[in-house]
């Protein structure tokens, strides 16, 4: 690794922490390398590297934050690069921190947006780390609500008419008037946030959600991230009172969660994890406990997809605890179904079944007049049947999986194209498990055709998972026909 030129001042802060932690130089280097591997980084530090740091040289890139995390884990308290006497930087690892204040949360998430909207391809290659789920979910659950999120305007001052021209900023700067803003290409920091601004954020969220459902996360993900950088960040750094500020943070949380969701769909799992953590923090600033629980459910779903069943169950349970039992039945059903998926991955039949029963009973108590948050409205009978199908597939209960998957496909609207694709593959897998090879291959071929039309790594991986299950039957005629169809798709 290339280091910055040596400084003459020895790093006494780092030396003191090494002594407190009981590390040898080689031991610290080894732990930094191991933590780097968790994030997809091939770092080859050794005891000589640590000696150079102690003499005052500064490691580059994300390494200062990784060193700080090594000490944080060892000593049980949050330490930053500055605490170690290392250069402050804005590493991608910082995206896993649960900010202490709304202002710090804005700094962290806006840093992610800027890096992601640029040419930082390495950001999308960072690995998912299960250890990065613990602190944010704990801090959200036990943390106190933010007392203040407002960024107030200076008090109005009456200025004599003769003095106004002298105090006016040049070229209209600092004048957030309607006339000035009409002529702007982009919004600048410091402007007053209006109800119309927040309505625009909500509309943009609906647009990108629709595109994601129909065409996959890769279709417009970069456009969403650029929108967050150029439109949402200036709003968060603008001027607003408490009520408007809470609504602004809620809209920013929703768009940030969606940026994470689309990143997850293209298999940028470490980046998605960071977006979810920051969406959770923004939801806390919004004072929206229920939406924070929804973000945790999203994190749980990613953990399920990556095979981390234990973490998935824990996240779902933290969401349940944080949301309480007084929310709408649809929300309760969503939370219990999320837990069931984690148990399914772990092969825990009784726990999975119990969670599914709780979800089903909750949804049965829902009534047409119930007030349901916008983010939970898609959780209906079709989605619950889909959850049942996935769980029974994971538990190798293929007859039940097929029944629920068929029901979900009958009920699910065509606009949820990717969800229908996933369910079709679940049904194909169930048919294969029941020995119905012809039907299984026909269903999977349909799904493969749909996946080819989407920009979704998850869609492709669902199909590939089915193909791996086909290996024992590779010489059968239906399988050869299937492979011919898929080859024709290119």
What about the largest sheet? none
Low-confidence stretches: 1-7, 154-184
Label the structural class. Answer: mainly alpha
- The pLDDT mean sits at 88
Q: Helical stretch count? A: 22
Give the N-terminus to C-terminus distance in angstroms: 41 Å
**Sequence of secondary-structure elements:** HHHHHHHHHHHHHHHHHHHHHH
Region (Disordered): 146-192
InterPro entries: TPR-like_helical_dom_sf
Protein name: Regulatory protein
Helix-strand layout with pairing:
Blueprint (H helix, E strand, L loop, with lengths): L11 H10 L3 H14 L8 H9 L7 H13 L26 H16 L16 H9 L18 H7 L10 H5 L12 H21 L5 H16 L5 H24 L3 H18 L2 H17 L3 H15 L5 H18 L2 H16 L16 H14 L3 H14 L5 H17 L3 H16 L4 H13 L7 H12 L2
Describe the structure in brief.
Helix content is 64%, strand content 0%. The chain is mainly alpha-helical and 490 residues long. Mean pLDDT is 88; it is low at 1-7 and 154-184.
């Amino acid at each position: 690794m290339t280091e910055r030129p040596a400084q003459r001042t020895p790093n006494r802060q780092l030396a003191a922490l090494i002594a407190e932690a009981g590390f040898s130089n080689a031991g610290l280097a080894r732990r930094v390398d191991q933590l780097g591997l968790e994030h997809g980084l091939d770092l080859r530090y050794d005891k000589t590297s640590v000696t150079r740091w102690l003499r005052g040289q500064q490691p580059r890139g994300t390494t200062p934050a990784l060193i700080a995390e090594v000490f944080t884990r060892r000593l049980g308290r949050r330490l930053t690069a500055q605490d170690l006497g290392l250069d402050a930087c804005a590493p991608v690892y910082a995206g896993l921190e649960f900010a202490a204040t709304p202002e710090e949360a804005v700094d962290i998430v806006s840093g992610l947006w800027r890096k992601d909207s640029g040419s930082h391809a390495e950001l999308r290659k960072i690995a998912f780390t299960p250890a990065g789920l613990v602190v944010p979910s704990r801090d959200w659950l036990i943390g106190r609500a933010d007392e203040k999120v407002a960024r107030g305007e200076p008090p109005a001052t009456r200025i004599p008419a003769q003095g106004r021209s002298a105090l006016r900023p040049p070229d209209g700067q600092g004048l957030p008037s309607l006339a000035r803003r009409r002529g702007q290409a982009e919004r600048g920091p410091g402007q007053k946030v209006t109800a119309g601004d927040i309505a625009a954020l909500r509309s943009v969220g609906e647009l990108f959600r629709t595109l994601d459902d129909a065409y996959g996360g890769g279709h417009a993900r970069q456009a969403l991230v650029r929108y967050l950088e150029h439109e949402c960040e200036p709003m968060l750094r603008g001027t607003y009172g408490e009520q408007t500020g809470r609504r602004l943070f809620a809209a920013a949380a929703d768009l940030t969660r969606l940026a994470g969701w689309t990143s997850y769909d293209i298999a940028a799992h470490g980046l998605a994890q960071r977006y979810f953590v920051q969406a959770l923090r923004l939801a806390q600033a919004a004072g929206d406990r229920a939406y924070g629980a929804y973000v945790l459910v999203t994190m749980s779903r990613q953990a399920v997809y990556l095979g981390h069943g234990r973490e998935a169950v824990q996240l779902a349970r933290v969401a349940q605890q944080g949301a309480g039992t007084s929310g709408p039945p649809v929300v309760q059903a969503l939370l219990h179904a999320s837990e069931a998926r984690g148990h399914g991955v772990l092969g825990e039949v009784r726990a999975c079944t119990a969670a599914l029963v709780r979800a089903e009973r909750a949804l049965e108590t829902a009534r047409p007049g119930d007030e349901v948050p916008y983010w939970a409205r898609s959780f209906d009978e079709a989605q619950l049947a889909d959850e049942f199908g996935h769980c029974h597939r994971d538990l190798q209960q293929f007859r039940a999986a097929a029944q629920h998957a068929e029901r979900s496909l009958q009920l699910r609207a065509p606009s949820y194209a990717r969800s229908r694709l996933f369910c079709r593959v679940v049904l194909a897998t169930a048919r294969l498990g029941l020995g119905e090879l012809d039907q299984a291959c026909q269903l999977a071929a349909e799904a493969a055709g749909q996946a080819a039309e989407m920009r979704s790594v998850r869609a492709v991986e669902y199909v590939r998972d089915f193909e791996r299950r086909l290996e024992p039957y590779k010489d059968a005629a239906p399988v050869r026909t299937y492979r011919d169809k898929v080859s024709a798709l290119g």
